[in-house]
Design brief:
Length: 322
């Protein structure tokens, strides 16, 4: 019996979510897996990471050499506006438990997740990795933003005190199959896909929230997954790295809505409910650091990614999170 040497045993917290499922897809369907790597994808059913004992039990059971830490309380603008305290407390507990358990169990590398929405609200553009702590975040999601910023503080402290090489990525707005399509709690693209689907079924107008004027950079979950595998295997800085399409790929919410309408073939009326918040007007991030490492990485064209996500949603409507 040939004994398979395990080079890396990677435990993915939050493995059942949008990003976790994308990493699993790229590994299984996209030839992303490498020799001698074992992968474990966790959901909250495997253990509640807000509980330190349950967290340690997962590390004891799986003995990971590497961790991709995705687990978090996640939501769109409107859920953040409603629950800033929950986003702060829940994510602080999860992050401290996971990073402390990783340290105690001798995990070689942890890649955690920040977000481009945590940067200072009053800032120059484009935003880059050095600006995380330069001022207060946007009011709408300060709880989530401060909790995420503390991951960077954790990583720097584990490095300073114990020489740990724990790091983090800073994705921009992510979308794709297995997203959270819940209209009240989810992000803009899954929300618009779900609302357009209903408008087509019921012959009613599509209600886009806000003015449609804010600007966003969107990254397809499968592209992010490919970049995550590179960060896990090749990126060795403690400093975080922004994973985003370029500034030139920034689109308005209206352009995003038009792309969803086109992909689903909706011919009805599109209305803008300006009584709803626009949130941050823009959070334009630079991917220059990523480009320095991976000058030739190609992102899936936005309209193609939207089309694939819409097709996934329609085909999986019964099981999609909504
Ligand atoms: P998601 O789809 O909401 O998935 C969240 C994951 O975390 C799920 O697997 C969930 O498990 C798990 N989880 C939540 N609470 C938990 C707990 N107490 N104990 C154990 N597991 C728990 O999130 P996502 O969009 O994939 O986000 C992944 C990471 O990317 C997060 O850290 C998020 O902050 C970051 N991020 C997301 C975006 C975006 O636009 N989506 C943008 C930037 C950064 P269950 O499935 O069992 O609930
Ligand atoms: O993805 P989203 O909810 O969050 O996008 P953010 C909000 C923007 O889309 C606002 C408009 O300008 C909304 O007015 N919008 C239009 C909609 N229609 C809809 C809709 O049906 N649903 C939603 N949700 N928005 C989040 C942060 O900011 O970014 C989170 O609050 C997280 O913490 C996430 O980091 C990545 O992009 O504004």
């Amino acid at each position: 019996m040939e004994n398979k040497t395990v080079k890396m045993r990677v435990m993915v917290t939050g493995g059942s979510g949008l990003v976790g499922r994308a990493i699993e897809h790229v590994l299984k369907e996209d030839g992303g897996a490498s020799e001698g790597e074992e992968w474990i994808f966790l959901s909250s059913k495997d253990g509640n990471l807000m509980d330190p004992d349950e967290t340690k039990a997962l590390f004891k059971k799986h003995q990971p050499t590497h961790v991709i830490h995705l687990a978090a309380m996640v939501g769109g603008l409107f859920k953040n506006m409603r629950q800033n305290l929950d986003f702060w407390r829940i994510n602080m507990y999860i992050n401290d438990n996971v990073l402390q358990a990783a340290h105690e169990f001798g995990v070689e590398k942890v890649v955690s997740c920040l977000s481009t929405c945590i940067f200072p609200d009053k800032t120059t553009y484009p935003i880059d990795e050095n600006m995380i702590h330069n001022g207060p975040p946007h009011e709408s999601n300060f709880g989530y933003s401060y909790a995420k910023r503390m991951i960077d503080v954790h990583n720097r402290a584990y490095c300073a005190q114990f020489g740990r090489k724990y790091t983090a990525v800073i994705p921009t707005n992510i979308f794709g199959p297995h997203d959270n399509f819940n209209i009240e709690d989810g992000h803009v693209l899954p929300g618009l896909i779900h609302k357009t689907y209903i408008a087509m079924k019921e012959g009613t107008p599509l209600q886009v929230w806000g003015s449609g004027r804010p600007l966003r950079q969107f990254i397809y979950s499968l592209d992010l997954a490919r970049l995550f595998l590179w960060v896990l295997r090749e990126y060795n800085e403690v400093e975080p790295i922004i994973l985003s399409v370029g500034e030139e790929d920034e689109v308005s919410i209206k352009q995003a809505a038009d792309a969803v309408v086109k992909a689903l073939g909706f011919n009805g009326e599109v209305l803008y409910d300006t009584s709803k918040s626009d949130g941050q007007f823009k959070k334009t991030a630079s991917n220059a650091k990523l480009r320095k490492y991976l000058p030739d990485f190609t992102f899936t064209p936005f309209h193609k990614a939207i089309k694939e996500t819409c097709e996934w949603f329609v085909a999986n409507y019964e099981v999609a999170r909504k």
